[in-house]
């Protein structure tokens, strides 16, 4: 919100509704979503608001953005990505790089 120049939530909320494309373009940049092919348009509403086409012509890999890019980041790769606990109480912790039990 503040990165977009807003200090008042209600004004920011109105902006996000009025300029959907700008909001989502800023969001994917703030989240460091990495694209293999850049999108041409954030959202296409030619078929109406009920049938949006998001990130037109963009190509990205969800697994890369959720795991792979963090596994290659030396400051993050050993942080917990997932903690799994079985019914018997055993715990397995998965970092972005590997699993440990």
Mean pLDDT: 91
Which series of helices and strands comes N to C?
HHEEHEEE
Give the uncertain stretches in residue-range form: none
Helix coverage percent? 25-40%
Number of helices: 3
Read across the widest sheet, the strand sequence of neighbours is 3-4-5
Estimated share of beta-strand residues: 15-25%
Instruction: Sketch the major β-sheet.
Output: 3 strands, antiparallel
Rg, please?
19 Å
Q: Which outline best applies?
A: elongated
The total of beta strands comes to 5
Class by SSE composition: alpha+beta
Which labels suit this protein?
101 residues, alpha+beta, 3-stranded antiparallel β-sheet, two-stranded antiparallel ribbon
Describe this structure in words.
This protein is 31% helix and 21% strand. The strands form 2 sheets. It has a 3-stranded antiparallel sheet with strand order 3-4-5, with no helix packed on it. The chain has a two-stranded antiparallel sheet with strand order 1-2. It has helices at 9-18, 20-30, 62-71, and strands spanning 41-44, 53-56, 80-85, 91-95, 99-100. The mean pLDDT is 91. The chain has 3 helices and 5 strands; from the N terminus they run H-H-E-E-H-E-E-E. Strand 1 (41-44) and strand 2 (53-56) form a beta hairpin. The chain is an alpha+beta fold and 101 residues long.
Write the layout of secondary structure elements.
Elements lengths: L8 H10 L1 H11 L10 E4 L8 E4 L5 H10 L8 E6 L5 E5 L3 E2 L1
Antiparallel strand pairs: 1-2, 3-4, 4-5
């Amino acid at each position: 919100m503040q990165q977009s120049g807003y200090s008042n939530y209600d004004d920011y909320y109105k902006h996000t509704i009025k300029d959907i494309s700008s909001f989502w373009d800023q969001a994917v940049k703030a989240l460091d979503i990495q694209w293999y092919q850049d999108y041409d348009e954030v959202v296409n509403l030619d078929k109406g608001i009920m049938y949006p086409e998001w990130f037109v012509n963009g190509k990205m890999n969800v697994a890369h953005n959720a795991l792979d890019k963090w596994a290659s980041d030396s400051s993050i790769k050993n942080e917990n990505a997932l903690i799994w606990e079985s019914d018997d109480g055993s715990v397995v912790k998965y970092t972005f790089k590997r699993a440990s039990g």
